[in-house]
UniProtKB/TrEMBL annotation:
The chain crosses the membrane at residues 6-23, 131-161, 199-221. It holds the Pfam family Zn_peptidase_2. InterPro entries: Zn_peptidase_2 (IPR007395). This is Putative neutral zinc metallopeptidase.
């Protein structure tokens, strides 16, 4: 059972997990928006950066929903409108998570350094794999197919190393918010829900990439035997 349909069946557990995780993220984020905080996400990010000696890192608003991220090249924490402007547990929690990445960067946190080095593999590995796979099939070249699989392995490696990076950033966020008292008991519970839900999306993405790699390795091995 090869081809696109076979891939969908093989990776179905990851696809279902991703659908559930995305639903949970949206639900927990919406619930967290209803838990008020004294400060905005932007103010929380600025305060956490300052107390960690990272005054040189800017906090800016960026377009999109849940488009929040830390840019290690520009040394900027970019927060979506709802997070930047919002006075809620969701806003503060996500802002603190992204600042967690900035702190990792400042500390040269090992997994983050490796992940940043693997970014090109994540950006181009999937596209290169698709092109080489098609060319390999058309030209009956087992070597092109194998090269595509190897390049896709770079994307899988990125996903795997991304897990400890994201989990560590969330743990830092939870600890900082608890230590600084920026959220109360209800706020802490909401933050945990949002960040834990987001963690499942990373797990699902990693599982899908691992299963995809396993699927094509299985096909490659079968083709070699034939």
């Amino acid at each position: 059972m090869y081809g696109y349909f076979g891939l969908m069946i093989f990776t179905a557990p990851a696809i279902l997990l991703m659908m559930w995780a995305q639903y949970r993220v949206k639900s927990s984020f919406a619930n967290g928006l209803r838990v008020p905080t004294r400060i905005s996400g932007a103010a929380a990010a600025r305060h956490i950066l300052d107390i960690n000696g990272l005054q040189s890192i800017d906090v800016v608003e960026t377009p999109g929903q849940l488009s929040d991220h830390y840019d290690p090249r520009e040394k900027v924490v970019r927060l979506s409108h709802d997070v930047y402007q919002g006075h809620s547990a969701s806003s503060v929690g996500i802002a603190a998570h992204e600042v967690g990445h900035a702190i990792q960067d400042a500390e040269n946190y090992g997994p983050l350094v490796i992940r940043n080095a693997a970014v090109p593999a994540a950006q181009y590995g999937g596209t290169a794999f698709s092109i080489l796979l098609i060319l390999g099939i058309l030209l009956h070249s087992i070597h092109l197919i194998l090269l595509g699989i190897v390049l896709y392995g770079g994307l899988v490696f990125f996903q795997l190393i991304n897990l400890p990076v994201e989990f560590d950033a969330s743990n830092r966020a939870k600890q900082i918010l608890a230590d600084t008292g920026m959220v109360d008991t209800d706020g802490a519970a909401a933050v945990n829900s949002v960040l834990n839900s987001a963690a499942w999306t990373y797990v699902a993405a990693t599982l899908q990439s691992v299963l995809t790699l396993a699927y094509y390795l299985m096909i490659f091995a079968g083709g070699r035997r034939d």
